[in-house]
Amino acid sequence: MRVFADTSALLKRYVAEAGSAAFEELLARTDQLVIAAVTPLEARSALQRRRRDGSLREGDWSRLRLALNRDVVDMVVVPAADQVLTLACDLVERHPLRALDALQLSCALSSAPQVFACADAALLQAARAEGLECFDPAAEAD
After folding, report:
1. What is the mean pLDDT of each run of 10 residues along the chain (142 residues)?
2. What is the value of pTM for the model shown?
């Protein structure tokens, strides 16, 4: 199964939070994990925020950063090519999305996944409206 994971879903692989177990279960059934080129930047930014606010220890930051860098090598990365950026511009006019969320959705639509994994309500709503099969790991959490 080809799964596109936006940053909100992918982070559940590295930080234990609501939906982490559900996302791991999805990954166990995934043949190809697809991400946007901007996802590693967004993920590192989110981890860095946690490091700054004290919810992520220094040693955990280093370990998670290395794990993310290692794992990205095995993912399909969708570049922010001109047609992807053009579609993202169209998406912000059709849906109430932030710029990077529109870019994530544009990359997902360009990669034709079987499942779009995301834990952001507004982005999930837009993805469903665009015809993607969605999986919200946070909604699957106990």
Report:
1. 97 94 96 97 95 90 92 96 97 97 98 97 98 94 56
2. 0.94
